[in-house]
Design goal:
- The model has no long low-confidence stretch (mean pLDDT about 95).
- The protein has helices at about 15-20, 30-50, 75-85, 95-110, 120-130, 150-155, 175-180, 190-195, 200-230, 240-245, 250-260, 265-270, 280, 285-305, 330-360, 380-395, 420-450, 455-465, 480-490, 495-500, and strands spanning about 5, 25-30, 90, 130-135, 135-140, 165, 170, 315, 320-325.
- The relative contact order is 0.12.
- It has two domains: about 5-200, Fumarase C, Chain B, domain 1; about 205-500, Fumarase C, Chain A, domain 2 (Up-down Bundle).
- By secondary structure, the chain is mainly α.
- The chain contains 20 helices and nine strands.
- Helix 14 packs antiparallel against helix 15 (about 330-360) and helix 16 packs antiparallel against helix 17.
- A three-stranded antiparallel sheet has the order 4-6-7. The protein has a two-stranded parallel ribbon with strand order 1-2. The chain has a two-stranded antiparallel ribbon with strand order 3-5.
């Protein structure tokens, strides 16, 4: 099996996507091992002689920073921290997100600034490789002093506490360790804080969202092009000349995608009775393109974050400094994820408008895209469903980052709410997928009523889709068609270099 070596160097989201997609195992590079051990040795040596308080190493946490902890209690302090902070609740975080958290936590610790033992990082990697996924809950993080509660649940199993899914089976962590032939880790000074302080809950959701959003952005262009064909739309709005005089990158790319999808189409080149199309068709480059630009911005933010040290305090052994700061604060992520939630909600909004246009009975299409409308309701209600989801996305797009609340007896007096932004974004992405699936149902059905052929690319795509979702000739339970359409979109393997 291919192995991805975690190094204290830059890794792109595309690299991470490859690790996930190809199911690569993880391992620490020699360089990472060296800097991790060097930092740990520095902590051990320093704390033997240093008597002044160092936050999180020989003090309490949060507003208890002024409470000194005896040397004999430093290990217990870290264990207590882990247990007391495991206060997550609500729905479980999806296992694919938690697995990514394991990767990103190991990556953040690989820089040798956190003071952890090598075995601690290796255990995170073993969990990843063995598909031993801690049970983590979605509610409980303020996105500021690190993702404390989620990361506590992520880290508890290292100590043989909490719960995990091992190869998909839920069990006590102690049982999983026994199956894997592993002993619980005994934390040393600073380690618990290093594990709990950080932004890996937020950044895992954000990374996942960016990767999926790029795919959905491409599919929005493709499905929008199919809708355009079904609606007998005009080609002029996608002419390169229009977009070169307003050269937003996303706009140019969307127009290019649509031109390529439609190349060789009989429908698009046929004589038209109408001189303009509604905005939801004509303005796809401008709307889809703006969302592309937002995704590109968020991708840069996420790449910076996953290549950062975000725990506290951090160790600079070359400078003989242990510095307490605020790299755990999730504000950059919160703002970015709120931005992307808005951008993706808009992709869904314009998609639903195209669905709405297709069912009116305009441009020689049957009302509700079905033979014998009246006897059959056809595609009347899928549009309702899409409209409902679009409305929910608008509500979810309300920014979380404009909120804050005081915690830890006033010590943490401004928080990012980035974790709430992250979990909202997750819902928006999945909702967008559902909206596009409904548009694909409608667009392909509209295309069925056209005598002329679309492009070879689109015709082949629809032929593949029809293997899963046949043409609707009379009323049937369309819930199953919607679910099959969602499954179809999820099953599509797209070349990452192609889609964005």
């Amino acid at each position: 099996m291919d192995v991805h070596h975690i190094k204290p160097h830059f890794v792109s989201l595309q690299n991470l996507n490859e690790v996930i997609r190809l199911h690569k195992n993880l391992a620490l590079s020699e360089e990472a091992v060296s800097v991790i051990e060097e930092c740990r040795n520095y902590i051990d040596a320093t704390m033997k002689t240093r008597k002044d308080p160092v936050y999180g190493i020989n003090t309490g946490f949060g507003s208890l920073y002024n409470v000194s902890i005896a040397e004999k209690d430093l290990s217990q302090l870290q264990k207590n921290l882990m247990m007391s902070h495991a206060c997550g609740t609500g729905d479980e975080a999806p296992t694919e997100i938690v697995k990514l958290m394991l990767l990103l936590k190991a990556k953040g610790l690989s820089y040798g600034k956190s003071g952890v033992q090598k075995i601690t990082v290796e255990r995170l990697i073993t969990f990843y490789n063995e598909d031993c996924i801690p049970v983590v809950y979605q509610l409980g993080s303020l996105g500021a002093s690190g993702d404390l509660a989620p990361l506590a649940h992520l880290s508890l199993p290292l100590l043989g506490m909490g719960e995990v899914y091992l190869k998909g089976e839920r069990m006590e962590s102690a049982e999983a360790l026994e199956i894997l032939g592993l002993e619980p880790i005994t934390l040393k000074s600073k380690e618990g804080l290093a594990l709990l302080n950080g932004t890996q809950f937020m950044s895992a959701f954000g990374t996942w969202a960016v990767l999926k959003a790029k795919k959905l952005s491409y599919l929005a262009d493709l499905i929008g092009a199919i809708s355009l064909e079904g609606f007998d739309g005009r080609p002029e709005a996608f002419d390169e000349l229009l977009h070169l005089i307003r050269p937003h990158n996303g706009q140019i790319q969307t127009a290019k995608n649509i031109r390529e999808f439609l190349e060789g189409s009989e429908i698009i080149t046929s004589e038209k009775k109408h001189v303009q199309d509604p905005y939801s068709f004509r303005c796809m480059p401008q709307v889809h393109g703006a969302s592309k630009d937002a995704i590109a911005y968020v991708e840069k933010v996420m790449e910076t974050e996953v290549n950062s040290v975000t725990d506290n305090p951090t160790v600079f052994q070359a400078d003989d400094k242990i510095l307490s700061g605020g790299n755990f604060h999730g504000q950059p992520l919160a703002l970015a994820m709120d931005f992307m939630a808005i951008a993706l909600a808009e992709l869904g909004s314009i998609s639903e408008r195209r669905t709405y246009q297709l069912i009116h009975g305009y441009r020689d299409l049957n009302p509700f895209l079905v033979a014998e409308p009246g006897l059959n309701s056809g595609f009347m209600i899928p549009q309702y469903t899409a409209a409902s989801i679009v409305s929910q996305n608008k509500q979810l797009a309300t920014p979380a980052s404009v909120d804050s609340i005081e915690s830890s007896n006033g010590q943490e007096d401004h928080v990012s709410m980035g974790a709430n932004a992250a979990t909202k974004l997750y819902q928006v992405v999945n909702n967008l997928e559902r909206i596009l699936a409904i548009e694909l149902m409608n667009a392909s059905q509209a295309l069925h009523f056209r005598e002329a052929k679309s492009s070879e690319f689109i015709e082949n795509f629809i032929e593949t889709y029809r293997e899963e979702v046949p043409v609707v000739k009379e009323d049937r339970i369309l819930h199953y068609d919607i679910e099959a359409s969602i499954d179809f979109i999820q099953s599509l393997e797209l070349d990452p270099e192609l889609i964005f």
